[in-house]
Design goal:
- The complex is a heterodimer of chains A (497) and B (152).
- Chain A is mainly alpha-helical and 497 residues long.
- Chain A has one domain.
- Chain A contains 21 helices and 4 strands.
- Chain A has a two-stranded antiparallel sheet. Chain A has a two-stranded antiparallel sheet with strand order 2-3.
- Chain B has one domain.
- Helix content of chain B is 72%, strand content 0%.
- Chain B contains 6 helices and no strands.
- Classes of the chains: A mainly alpha (497), B mainly alpha (152).
């Protein structure tokens, strides 16, 4: 069904627009509507998986091609976008479920859900769009909503973090916009597939290389790859926990890694130089993110640095460019959303019950908060790469892909990064749940029911996601997604047709 | 607005207040003109909405921050903003329902260069005009409220 494609953007937008009106009198409206929207979108995304081998093009407003030249905005649904839609809407669903109880802490739930829905619409739009300027607009919708959400607590620290995030985010958007402008001047079109076609015809000049650099910097800033990462450790911990889970779990991937991958592979065309640049950036991210995480005593800040390190893994797989590397990268992207989302939600539960983010003030929480502690253990084992959990499989695939590609040194760095991950996550586990309590924890209680349900859902996903690699399952879910990337610029003909 | 603020000493001089009061209506009319002719002449929903908001802001500037600071006004501005953008969404979704495409033109196109022409574009312009005017007035009122808070 072609009509379901715009719904991913339309439904959350509609919810965002109507909530401020009805939410003034009816305070629970936000809880109800936001959860309905995310459940619907998750259902739609999972339902769309049956189209994972097809490429469907949707012409917004019915403005199709004239003489083979696209004039309107195209939405493109193919394997990669369906995969990303499932990831984004899954975490959004869990985050809204978690918000029901958690956001009681804050004053204006309606505004929170409005911004949340705008951010979700922006992310879904980025994933589906096939138009460069539309891509920029959706990135800005998602990013601006997230600036406001980071500042949602309105304490001095949060406002400062949001300001820093906003400045760095705007710089990143500036680079992206400049890249789009230059591409437009070179090709005379904004449709991604059409841009790709013109570049194929005219050949990639130095300008296209310059655009590549602009995109790496711009999307690198959005994805917090290491030389451009300094806003993330402030911004992500300052947001409310469900938003931290969204930002670290899916936002940096859907408006940073995904567009970069899409443009590099499907539009401009991937080659050895780009591959080397991405691999170097990935290694630096993995190591520096991991090392800095080791130093942290603020639990959420530690997790934020860990996100930088894990995005390094995803970029490494994408940089390798081999089918196996891409498989590992995409699978790790999914897994990272699940376990990092879960870790941030667990940290939120601790903040909710204990009232601190400082690891030294926690301790002995495993008996006080059994569900939080068990789910956190699952997530920690996943991110550290302990065998039955999902993180192990994706890291293993990435490392095998490195070896298969003959890059033994890179594989070594990836293993070292994995050991670092293990170290910092053990530190967090030990201090938060098992060590001696830094304060009186006698009256600490487990979180309210909706928060616990959200935690359990993600924990189950962390345990069973490894099953996606089973022979028949991987051929139906993961391989078509990898194929959309490995087929490279064939994307152009699938869209223009 | 005149009733509760004209007698207070806040704001600018009587001359400014009187001129602002006379001009505000004309400015708003001009804004409405720009919105309504968005599909025919330069400008459109956004530009017209800014001009409409300008007529309110002119009054607030003339009469001082205390005239602007009111929860009710803020709520009306916010309501305009939300309903404006929601109206746009409704028009767009009607295209999806009746024309199979989001933002599909479902109205008759009419004769070019007439006021009632160009299908859904004028309707969208009106929605954007209401949205932008509401948003800008809302932002201005919020700033005025912050300013008053600082003064206290």
């Amino acid at each position: 069904m072609v009509n379901s494609i715009p719904l991913f953007v339309v439904i959350p937008l509609g919810c965002a627009f109507i909530l401020p009106v009805i939410g003034r009198r009816w305070e629970r409206a936000g809880d109800l509507f936001a959860n309905l929207v995310t459940v619907t979108l998750l259902g739609l995304a999972i339902w769309s998986v049956r189209f994972i081998r097809e490429t469907t093009v949707y012409h917004v407003g019915g403005w199709g091609a004239v003489n083979g030249i696209p004039i309107g905005i195209y939405l493109v649904r193919d394997g990669l976008s369906i995969f990303m839609l499932v990831v984004v809407n899954l975490i959004a669903f869990v985050a809204t479920l978690y918000s029901i109880n958690y956001m009681e802490y804050f004053t204006d739930k309606t505004k929170y859900y409005t911004l949340f829905m705008l951010m979700l619409a922006g992310m879904n739009g980025v994933i589906l769009t096939g138009d460069f300027f539309n891509l920029y607009v959706f990135i800005e919708i998602a990013a601006i909503a997230s600036y406001a959400l980071v500042a949602f607590g309105t304490e001095a620290e949060e406002l400062e973090a949001a300001f820093k995030y906003q400045v760095m985010g705007s710089v990143g958007s500036g680079f992206i916009l400049l890249g789009i402008i230059l591409l437009y001047s070179y090709t005379g079109t904004l449709n991604m597939a059409d841009v790709g076609r013109v570049i194929l015809d005219k050949g990639a000049s130095n300008l296209v290389w310059f655009v590549n650099v602009l995109f790496i910097v711009g999307f690198g800033l959005k994805a917090a790859v290491v030389p451009f990462h300094m806003w993330l450790p402030d911004a992500h911990p300052s947001a409310p926990a469900p938003i931290s889970a969204m930002l670290s779990g899916v936002l940096i991937e859907s408006i940073g890694v995904y567009p970069l991958t899409r443009i590099m592979y499907n539009v401009i065309g991937f080659d050895g130089v780009l591959s080397n640049i991405l691999i170097v950036l990935a290694i630096i991210s993995m190591m520096i993110g991991g090392l800095l995480a080791l130093w942290q005593w603020d639990y959420k800040r530690l997790l934020a640095y860990s996100s930088i390190s894990q995005v390094g893994y995803i970029l490494l797989g994408i940089g390798l460019g081999t089918p196996l590397g891409l498989l590992g990268a995409l699978f790790h992207l999914f897994n990272h959303s699940a376990f990092k989302g879960l870790l941030f939600l667990d940290s939120g539960s601790i903040v909710y019950s204990v009232g601190t983010r400082d690891l030294r003030e926690m301790g002995e929480l495993d008996r006080r908060m059994p569900i939080t502690s068990k789910t956190n253990l699952v997530a920690a084992m996943s991110i550290a790469g302990v065998p039955p959990f999902n993180g192990f499989w994706s890291k293993l695939i990435i490392i095998i892909a490195c070896i298969q590609a003959g890059r033994y040194g890179v594989a070594g760095w990836a293993i070292l990064g994995s050991i670092l991950t293990f170290a910092y996550i053990l530190k967090a586990e030990r201090y938060a749940f098992y060590g001696k309590a830094g304060r009186d924890v006698a009256d600490v209680k487990e979180s309210p029911p909706f928060m616990c349900i959200a935690l359990i859902i993600l924990a189950v996903i962390c345990v069973v996601a490894g099953l996606m690699l089973l022979p028949n399952v991987r051929e139906t879910i993961l391989f078509p997604v990898v194929n959309t990337l490995t087929s490279g610029t064939e994307y152009i003909w699938r869209v223009l047709r | 607005m005149q009733n509760n603020t004209q007698n207070t000493s806040s704001g600018m001089s009587l001359i400014v207040k009187t001129v602002a009061r006379i001009l505000a209506g004309m400015i708003m009319l001009y804004g409405i003109y720009i919105v309504a002719h968005g599909h025919l002449t330069p400008g459109g929903g956004f530009a017209g909405g800014v001009i409409i908001a300008g007529s309110f802001i002119l009054l607030y500037l003339a009469y001082g921050a205390t005239a602007a600071d009111s929860d009710k006004r803020k709520w009306y501005a916010s309501l305009c903003e939300s309903l404006g953008i929601f109206g746009f969404w409704i028009v767009a979704i009607l295209g999806l329902v009746f024309g199979t495409y989001f933002l599909f033109n479902i109205f008759a196109k009419g004769t070019p260069f007439h006021l009632f022409s160009a299908g859904i574009i004028p309707v969208c312009n009106v929605a954007i005009g209401v949205e932008v005017a509401g948003a800008l007035v809302g932002i201005f009122i919020t700033f005025a409220a912050v300013k008053l808070l600082e003064r206290k």
